[in-house]
Specification:
alpha/beta; about 35% helix; three-stranded parallel beta sheet; about 270 residues; three-stranded antiparallel beta sheet
Length: about 270
């Protein structure tokens, strides 16, 4: 039996994009199970402690219940304990892969202006791993080259590892980053099916490599589904009240109507 996760960040209210993701998560969980159904873990990704709010956690739990999406496990919260992330960082340090970095976005922008192109490949513009920079942020050396995987929805995929520089694992505010925390969580929680939007396709090579470094022998199956887009082609955001589940509920929309609308917009249909 397979285990996947629905993993919203409580930095705002759920919107139609989250509904689309939930449809794919629960739908594919059922399809990949050899017998019965797959299981879904609800994981609250509150690693960004400056933007996450308790009221958003309460609201997303209420909205999920109203929509009829009931997890088999959880909820669990990233913010409950730093221990798993500290342990993973300790392993990276022991392997000589974690290093302090004092580069900022300005550093990367200045390098791009001087060289006529954005920074590409492993490392960082400040060559911080060689000069022993202070641990303003922490990065991890993943090496270069590429990773390949067979995506359940996107098909055969290949992507450069650390294509825009070594990824940050802990930011300037002392917070664990998304790319680091999800890899640690998926490994320790036994997630073997990762269902998410196409906007995260480019993050996959780094996450596959990092998971292998941390001891994951077999990468999870990935399924990157289509996004619901605005008319101008941009993706939905939590700031867009017009697509907020709570706003639509207040306007008299039913759960079935929202699910049908999100499913159609995100390309879900039975047998996808």
């Amino acid at each position: 039996m397979s285990l996947t996760r629905f993993a919203p960040a409580p930095t705002g209210y759920l919107h139609l994009g989250h509904v689309a993701n939930a449809i794919w998560v629960w739908g594919l969980a059922a399809q990949v199970a050899e017998a019965g159904r797959g299981r879904v873990l609800l994981r609250i990704e509150d690693h960004d402690r400056t933007r996450c709010r308790p009221e958003y956690v309460a609201a997303l739990l209420e909205d999920l219940d109203w929509l009829g999406f009931h997890p088999d496990l959880g909820p669990v919260r990233q913010g409950d304990s730093d221990a798993p992330y500290e342990a993973a960082l300790k392993r990276l340090r022991a392997d000589g892969r974690a290093y302090g970095c004092d580069c900022t976005r300005t550093t990367f922008s200045r390098w791009a202006a001087e060289h006529g192109r954005p920074w590409q490949g492993p490392g960082c513009p400040g060559v911080c791993h060689k000069r022993g920079a202070p641990e303003t942020t922490l990065r991890v050396m993943l090496g270069g080259e590429s990773e390949t995987w067979e995506d359940r929805l996107a098909g055969p995929c290949v992507g450069e590892v650390a294509g825009a520089g070594d990824p940050v694992v802990r930011d300037r505010r002392g917070q664990w980053t998304y790319g680091f925390s999800v890899v640690v969580d998926d490994l320790r929680q036994g997630i073997d099916l990762v269902v998410r939007g196409r906007d995260l396709l480019d993050a996959t090579p780094d996450q596959i490599r990092l998971a292998r470094i941390l001891g994951r022998e077999v990468a999870p199956m990935f399924a990157h589904h289509p996004l619901i887009l605005r008319p101008d082609g941009s993706k939905l955001s939590k700031a867009d009240g017009a697509t907020s589940v709570r706003e639509l509920r207040a306007a008299g929309r039913t759960a079935a109507e929202l699910i049908d609308e999100a499913a159609a917009a995100a390309g879900w249909h039975p047998g996808s």
